[in-house]
Design brief:
Structural class of chain A: alpha/beta
Oligomer: heterodimer
Shape of chain B: globular
Number of strands of chain B: 12
Strand order of the largest sheet of chain A: 6-7-8-3-9-10-11
Structural class of chain B: alpha/beta
Helix content of chain B: 25-40%
Strand order of the largest sheet of chain B: 6-7-8-3-9-10-12-11
Radius of gyration of chain A: 21 Å
């Protein structure tokens, strides 16, 4: 039993907001799980609900107009609706979060060291000196050069990549079992991004953490993830192992995403197979499959909401017959590498 | 073929742009944003400029259309020296060169209708009747695959991708020869990015445009450009045909940049990733000699003292390195 239990199990998570124009759904019926030491990549464009999903998991949606339903169990314990104090025993200690902009997690008026020390001492009874030594070790572990002096620096004295490392060091300070990272490299240059991705890969090896990595960049996912979940308009449209999803994506939206990215190898296509139109507004969600209006393979069945199918393996929320989908994908303009 | 090459549309020679920073004269220091850049851009080609933040690529773009004054060196447009041209002298030239920005919203007045915004260039540069103007605006909207009735709407009624289309329409209004696009797709979602790249490519073919395409995303630049220039700390370190530069980079920085791009492919992984040490040095206090020597795997003492100049390693392929990689 204990070995069967996933680290994190999210079931039928829904987030919606009451607005002047009625209730607007941001996340609709999202279910997934994360195993220990697993890196799950969550891909989606703006408005796909990926960030709201993370915030809901962390209990960070505080708006009085938000409605969050479903279930989020961490090691079997339900986190939704937990009291602040009980939540804080998990948040920061067992589950930590890193955001796109490191300055959202750092205050400009304290040194990096002080902020990490505060974080450690909030969760563990450690002397200041011991906490400081731990802070230096952490900064060293995330690859900050000369950690003994970096610990006394203020955030503005560090570059963007350094700050993101400092925030990751802070997130790691209590050896979390799960690290949730929301676009952690989006604001960084590619060479710095490569350093941070390498660091995230190393986290699992040296700290044994599982990671949920949210990004809009399929390249980043290919780089570090074990499993991938693609979101569109508040729903999971495809989920599978990285190899399966990258070699034989099943959902037409995933096909469109892959076709939209210019290749770095081989011949350059004359045109990219862009997805026509734009994602639906949350307040004007189409009936049935939300991707329908932009989909080249829409048919009668798509007037209903496709389900993702049973958990495990490679699944997609699409009515197209599973057999022959790869051949269908080839018919898309621009073609697909064989 | 190269014998019949037309004269370049844009030519810069040792173009530099320095900014003073710091409030009081005692604290004043100089940022060398662009350092001695010499390049030629030929009609109909697309020159991609890549580099990381702070490398000076945007400043260079702004210099090329004289949106900012040039500290030293020269800038020629269509054979004419416009390095020090006054605003009045520049006016006829401005019609020929336009800019597309990363964030179109910042350049669209939220209180004016799109049709009105698109008519501005005509009001300034051409004497047109009201109905001629409306026709031209309609043409522009159709050109960028929007609808004529969109002229009546306000900028906020459009999505990010549509707003960028409006930004492009405005740049096209006066039928320019040169468009400098500074990160035109980097604020957009991938699926929308592809639409805009396709649109820019269609316009290039239909209107015989010359582009300078500034971007940090190498795959986008590879898709869209014929030639590419790689910048590091204000200087061009490598330039050449896109395929040559990206498939066999000769500068160690280009190689590192190239290998750092995450590829959405699980089977064709790059052989080995070159992870650069440390951070980009401050442009306030750039390293001596070769600007890249502090992070370079092949640096020798020569690189610390002597700055390499761009020199040919192949036809049209130049690199500024004392110890270039094997081709």
């Amino acid at each position: 039993m204990a070995t069967e239990m996933p680290l994190l199990a999210v079931e039928n998570l829904c987030v919606s907001f009451r607005t002047d124009g009625g209730v607007v759904p941001a996340v609709s019926g999202v279910s997934f799980s994360v195993e220990r030491r697993e890196i799950l990549g969550v891909v989606g464009e703006s408005g796909s609900g990926k960030s709201q999903t993370l915030l809901a998991i962390m209990g960070l949606i505080n708006s009085p107009n938000a409605i969050v339903t479903g279930s989020v169990r961490f090691l079997g314990q339900e986190m939704l609706g937990l009291k602040r104090r009980a939540l804080d025993a998990i948040r920061g200690r067992q589950v930590a979060m890193v955001f796109q902009d490191p300055m959202t997690a750092l205050t400009p008026v304290h040194t990096i060291g002080d902020q990490i020390i505060e974080q450690i001492r909030a969760h563990e009874s450690l002397s200041r000196g011991a906490a400081r030594r731990r802070a230096v070790e952490l900064l060293d572990a995330v690859g900050l050069p000369s950690p003994e002096s970096a610990v006394d620096r203020y955030p503005h004295q560090l570059s963007g990549g350094m700050r993101q490392r400092a925030v990751i060091a802070m997130a790691l300070s209590c050896n979390p079992a799960l690290l949730i990272a929301d676009e952690p490299t989006t604001a960084l240059d590619v060479t710095v991004q490569a350093q941070i991705l390498e660091l995230i890969g190393r986290l699992r090896d040296s700290f044994g953490s599982a990671v949920i990595l949210v990004t809009h960049d399929l390249g980043v996912v290919a780089e570090v993830a074990d499993r991938v979940m693609v979101m569109y308009a508040g729903r999971v449209v495809e989920e599978g192992g990285k190899g399966q999803l990258f070699r034989e994506p099943l959902h037409p939206y995933s096909w469109g995403l892959f076709g939209s990215i210019p290749p770095m190898h081989g011949p350059r296509p004359a045109r990219l197979t862009a997805i026509p139109g734009s994602p639906p507004k949350l307040s004007q969600m189409p009936q049935g499959c939300a991707f329908g209006p932009r989909c080249g393979f829409r048919h009668e069945a798509c007037a209903a909401q496709p389900s993702l199918g049973s958990a495990g393996g490679h699944r997609s929320a699409c009515f197209l017959p599973r057999e022959g989908r790869h051949e269908l994908r080839r018919t898309l303009a621009g073609g697909v590498p064989a | 073929m190269s014998e019949t090459k037309p004269p370049p549309l844009v030519r810069t020679s040792e173009l530099s742009k320095h900014y003073p920073v710091g409030r009081s004269p005692l604290q004043r220091r100089i940022v060398h944003a662009v350092e001695q850049v010499s390049l030629e851009i030929f009609p109909g080609e697309t020159l991609g400029i890549v580099g990381e933040s702070g490398c000076g690529k945007s400043t260079l773009g702004r210099c090329l259309v004289r949106l900012t004054d040039i500290t030293s060196g020269t800038l020629e447009f269509a054979g004419r020296d416009i390095t020090r041209a006054s605003q009045r002298q520049l006016r006829p030239v401005r019609r020929q060169m336009q800019m597309v920005f990363q964030d179109p919203s910042a350049s669209l007045n939220p209180r004016r209708r799109v049709g009105d915004l698109l008519a501005d260039p005509f009001r300034v540069h051409e004497k047109l009747s009201r109905s001629e103007m409306a026709d031209r605006v309609e043409d522009l909207l159709v050109r960028v695959e929007l609808l004529p009735e969109h002229a009546q709407r306000f900028p906020h009624e459009f999505s990010g991708g549509q707003r960028q289309r409006i930004g492009i329409a405005r740049a096209l209004a006066l039928r320019p020869q040169l468009i400098v696009a500074d990160e035109p797709v980097s604020a957009l979602d991938v699926s929308i990015q592809a639409q805009i790249i396709n649109l820019l490519a269609d316009l290039r073919d239909a209107l015989k445009l010359t582009y300078v395409f500034i971007a940090h995303d190498l795959s986008v630049v590879r898709q869209f450009s014929s030639r590419v220039a790689v910048m590091y700390l204000g200087s061009i370190v490598e330039t050449g045909p896109v395929d040559a530069v990206f498939s066999s980079p000769r500068h160690h920085y280009t190689a590192a940049l190239r290998s750092a791009v995450p590829v959405p492919d699980v089977d064709n992984r790059p052989a080995q990733r070159i992870v650069l040490k440390g951070d980009l040095p401050s442009p306030l206090d750039p390293p001596s000699g070769c600007r890249f020597h502090t992070r370079c795997v092949a640096a020798t003492s020569l690189c610390r003292y002597e700055r390499p100049v761009l020199s040919f390693v192949d036809t049209n392929h130049l690199v500024a390195c004392h110890h270039p990689r094997a081709g």
